[in-house]
Amino acid sequence: MVVRGLRRVAVAVAVAAALSACGDDSGGTDSSTEDATESGGTESATEGATSSASEPTAGASAGDDVPDNEYCAPAAEWDASWAALEQEVIELVNAERASGANCGGTQMPATSPLKADPALRCAARVHTKDMVDNDYFDHTNLQGEGPGPRIEKAGYSWSTYGENIAAGNATAEATVQQWMESPGHCSNIMNPDFEDIGVGYQPGGAFSHTWTQVFGRTF
């Protein structure tokens, strides 16, 4: 974890236990690790009210699948079976939040449910699709963009955000269990500061199944 000024960023990336591990890497305002004994990845950040995050884009109102903007276009036509798995992840996450959890020895109390947000759904889907199409697994895309800039491009004006990624499991239940068994990922799921969530799933990629969940709260 690296702390600088008002922004705090913590990143942990990992893949399914049966898969090979990659090495550690850190730099800039992010620190990242990859560990084959866990699965998924986490990133979280907070920023003060002086943030220059973008304003919500038209089309991001409740009930829309994703915002009607250029960045979200790749996520607009989505397979119904993938979308059903995404919704199942949200339901499982909210069940965990309602029950409370122990995240690596830290007891996290029950907290309020997250609501699905079209812009965060866009950000999660676009990142998942990008990882599958370009055969990588990381919070930072090949253009060097982390979750914050991607969430802003999707039209979400964030005051805080978090991101989990996972690979290797085909079901929502197994993937949420992967995240819950990893302290950093579990902490993102249980974080009471988050109010919104978006999930992106697509089959394919280096580990056959690729998942992203993005959490946030607006100003």
Could you explain how this protein is built, in words?
This protein has 219 residues and is an alpha+beta fold. 30% of the residues lie in helices and 27% in strands. It has 6 helices and 11 strands. The longest helix has 20 residues, at 80-99. The protein is globular and about 40 Å long.
Structural topology:
Elements: E1 2-4, E2 7-14, E3 25-27, E4 30-32, E5 40-46, H1 73-76, H2 80-99, E6 101-103, E7 106-108, E8 115-116, H3 118-134, H4 147-154, E9 158-167, H5 172-180, H6 183-190, E10 196-203, E11 209-218
Parallel strand pairs: 8-10
Antiparallel strand pairs: 1-2, 2-5, 3-4, 5-9, 6-7, 9-11, 10-11
How much of the polypeptide forms β-strand, as a percent range?
25-35%
Number of helices: 6
Runs in which pLDDT lies below 50 for 5 or more consecutive residues are: 1-39, 47-63
- Gyration radius (Cα, Å) is 16 Å
How many beta-strand runs? Answer: 11
Question: Structural class of the helix and strand makeup?
Answer: alpha+beta
Gap between N and C termini, in Å?
Answer: 24 Å
Q: Could you give the order of strands across the largest sheet?
A: 1-2-5-9-11-10-8
Q: What does the overall shape look like?
A: globular
* Helix/strand order: EEEEEHHEEEHHEHHEE
Q: What percent of residues adopt helix (DSSP H or I)? A: 25-40%
Biggest sheet character:
7 strands, mixed
The mean pLDDT is 78
Short description:
With 219 residues, this protein is of the alpha+beta class.
Features:
single chain; disordered N terminus; globular; alpha+beta; 7-stranded mixed beta sheet; two-stranded antiparallel ribbon; 219 residues
